[in-house]
């Protein structure tokens, strides 16, 4: 968006994605928009690294040693768009994603959007770009808790009659997202009570993560205005199922060639794609920490159509990586991420792991679950604590994503989230009681 269009907003919301993928920023009134576009605005340097429940990170010396000093948010004009869900006939509201800077103007490397940018820069050096789209699964409830799923507690995947009960609300929601410039594609009810899915059109580079970040924000905000609660918590209620956040992606040359595709291969899959998959499989245990970043996420695996093992196959919904090919192209559906993920960290980690496979020319296992084979993929972690251990030990992924990023992420998850449930969960809790404890912690913010 041109600056002359941005200054026409009555208010400009400017935010960065925090480590959890939530928006943190400030609302800028019309008379200050030109100044903020030129100079940015001050904000606490550690704004992106609080605990999920606003726990203060006293363990992170970078912030305590500076006495919690300010950094700078600089709006990125190219990301500016109308924000339809908070606009009215009398007031136009816009939104711009910002860059988080130190006071000397250097990018803060811990900001998750910058983390993704660094990985995409590696692709650019190879004259490649990623084309990707997220699938957003979420749950809707009447009221503020998870006791009344929208749709009356019926389980009907893609049932149009059930969807019709609230069709005006959903059409208004989709219209609001599209008019905000978000590449919303299809919409349907999913397989569980109050569960829905929005797919996005493929976009290049950072745009898929930007779109998912803002769509999640918009869905929650729009729903609140209508008296509903939308949540991207992975499993907000028991015995209901869980939400995913699949990343469909392929790599392309600058002249428009799909490098995942090979017309001569029986599966239409190139050697590059197989090496990419091999990298993802090798790093799967560590990737799970970034893909499934809450304690609650690990109730999703091994249930329904969620991944059950770290393998790849063509058109297989229970493997970690589902390949889709045709006579004209190929792409990969990464089915591991949960709805509670940070889309920027998922994008960054996926590129880092895939490139490791390509750069080291790793051999790709045969497709399918090979439980009795040495080529079988690694098992999926059973908890966030286990996944964090894998992440810390995976030096290749840790260095690629950023040692500081991984260390801060690990501290916040271990010292706040994992500790919270160690202190408050008891061994005699039922599964329903445990999920309710997790819901109270996560649902207000996801």
From TrEMBL:
Residues 112-446 form the GS catalytic domain. InterPro entries: Gln_synt_N_sf (IPR036651), Gln_synth/guanido_kin_cat_dom (IPR014746), Gln_synth_cat_dom (IPR008146). Pfam families: Gln-synt_C (PF00120). One of its GO terms (molecular function) is glutamine synthetase activity. GO terms for cellular component: cytoplasm; membrane. GO terms for biological process: glutamine biosynthetic process. SUPFAM superfamilies: Glutamine synthetase/guanido kinase. Gene3D superfamilies: Glutamine synthetase, N-terminal domain (3.10.20.70), Glutamine synthetase/guanido kinase, catalytic domain (3.30.590.10). Dodecamer. Interacts with BFSP2 and VIM. Belongs to the glutamine synthetase family. May act as a component of the cytoskeleton or as a chaperone for the reorganization of intermediate filament proteins during terminal differentiation in the lens. Does not seem to have enzymatic activity. This is Lengsin. It comes from Littorina saxatilis.
